[in-house]
Amino acid sequence: MKLICIGRNYTEHIEELANEKPTDPVVFLKPDTAILLKKQPFFIPDFSNDVHHEVEVLIKICKVGKYIDAKFAHKYYNEIGLGIDFTARDLQAKLKAKGLPWEKAKSFDGAAVIGSWVSKEKFTSVNELNFSLEKNGKKVQVGNTANMLWKIDEIIAYVSQYFTLKIGDVIFTGTPSGVGKVAINDCLEGFLENEKLFSIRVK
Ligand code: ZN
C-alpha cells in the first residue's frame, strides 16, 4: 500500500510557511515503512533538529480505481481518519531551496501517524469536519475540511490521474495552520469531531 499526501491545501498554512499558492495540488508519497507502528512512540530522527507536526484528515481507499471522476469519488472510500504528516522542516527547507524532492524530510520511518478509522456514514458531510491536534493538553492546530482548497473528492479525482488507487491506500489531505516543532516527551493527541483518534508520545 502507499500513502499519497497533499501539500498546501489550506490557505492559512500556505501563508504561515510563506509558500506560493499552488495552481494544482502539491502531491508526494510516503512508503509503507513510514507508518508509525501502533502503540509505538515517535522517535525524533537524528538528522533533524526541527521536526514539525502536521495534523491531517485521512481517507482510506476501499476500491481499485484510476481516472476517477470527482462525482464518483465518494464510492472509493468508506472510512475517514486522522493522522500526522511528520516533517523534518530544516531538511525540507534545504531540499526545497535546491528544488530537490522532499522524501528524506517527509517519508522517513515513523513519519506517518495513522489513527483509528471512523465510518464516513457517521458524518453528515465529509466537507464540514472539525479536527484538531493537542500538544501536552493544549490545542495547537484546529481545522475544518470546509477550508480545503481541494476537497476530498477532487483530491481523489486528481491523484488517480497519476496513480492507480488500490484498496488500503491512504490519502493525507493536507494540514491547516499551527504546525510546530515537537520535543522529546511531548504528547500529541488528534481529535476528529471531538473523538480522540490517536495519542502519540515523542521520544
Ligand atoms: Zn502535510
Q: What layout of secondary structure does this protein have?
A:
Blueprint: E1 3-7, H1 11-16, E2 26-30, E3 51-53, E4 55-61, E5 77-85, E6 87-88, H2 89-97, H3 103-106, E7 112-114, E8 118-119, E9 130-135, E10 138-144, H4 152-159, E11 170-172, E12 180-181, E13 187-192, E14 195-201
Parallel strand pairs: 1-11
Antiparallel strand pairs: 1-2, 3-6, 3-12, 4-5, 4-11, 5-7, 5-8, 9-10, 9-13, 13-14
This protein binds zinc ion.
- Main pleated-sheet profile: 7 strands, mixed
Shape: globular
The helix content, as a percent range, equals 10-25%
How many β strands by DSSP? 14
Quote the beta fraction.
25-35%
Distinct small molecules: zinc ion
Characterise the protein shown here.
This protein has 203 residues and is of the alpha+beta class. Helix content is 13%, strand content 33%. The chain has four helices and 14 strands. The protein has helices spanning 11-16, 89-97, 103-106, 152-159, and strands at residues 3-7, 26-30, 51-53, 55-61, 77-85, 87-88, 112-114, 118-119, 130-135, 138-144, 170-172, 180-181, 187-192, 195-201. Strands 1, 2, 4, 5, 7, 8 and 11 form a seven-stranded mixed β-sheet that branches. The chain is globular. The chain binds zinc ion.
